[in-house]
Amino acid sequence: MYDVIADSLLENALYFFRERIENAFMSRDYGGYLNGERLKRGKNDSIYARLDVQFTFEQATQQSIAVKGAGVTHNSVRQMLKNWRKQGLVVLTAEGRYRKVDN
């Protein structure tokens, strides 16, 4: 039943707003970005702000638990740090040690 309702809502939205939706997807500002800056800040941003310039994996884990709660796993912290490295926010200086990059 859920699929039927979801399909109906999607078809209705596309019928009335297809052009606006397509324009939004093609826009460079789509997805919470404006001139290259993110508009929506998440919990990982709060964790990043709480960390020192140089920090360890364990410190990142502790801050993640403080912000997100006890359900944080080592894999989620690893993925967060991996994403930060891809984004150029941190560099790996030694095994398990990271440094924030000045932007």
N/C terminus separation: 50 Å
Tell me the series of helices and strands, N- to C-terminal: HEEHEHHEE
Averaged pLDDT:
84
Task: Give the uncertain stretches in residue-range form.
Answer: none
Proportion of helical residues: 55-70%
Radius of gyration: 19 Å
> Strand percentage, roughly?
15-25%
As laid out across the biggest beta sheet, the strand order is 3-5-4
Discrete helix count: 4
> Largest sheet, if any?
3 strands, antiparallel
Number of strands: 5
Structural class label = alpha+beta
Query: Quaternary status of these chains?
Result: single chain
Query: Overall 3D geometry?
Result: elongated
Give short descriptive properties of this protein.
4 helices; single chain; alpha+beta; about 100 residues; three-stranded antiparallel beta sheet; 5 strands
Q: What is the secondary structure topology, with strand pairs?
A:
Blueprint: H1 2-26, E1 33-34, E2 37-38, H2 43-50, E3 54-56, H3 57-68, H4 74-86, E4 90-94, E5 97-100
Antiparallel strand pairs: 1-2, 3-5, 4-5
Helix pairs in contact: 2-3, 3-4
Describe this structure in words.
The chain is an alpha+beta fold and 103 residues long. 56% of the residues lie in helices and 16% in strands. The chain has helices at residues 2-26, 43-50, 57-68, 74-86, and strands at 33-34, 37-38, 54-56, 90-94, 97-100. Strands 3-5-4 form a three-stranded antiparallel sheet. Helix 2 (43-50) crosses helix 3 (57-68) and helix 3 (57-68) packs across helix 4. The longest helix is centred in the first third of the chain and has 25 residues, at 2-26.
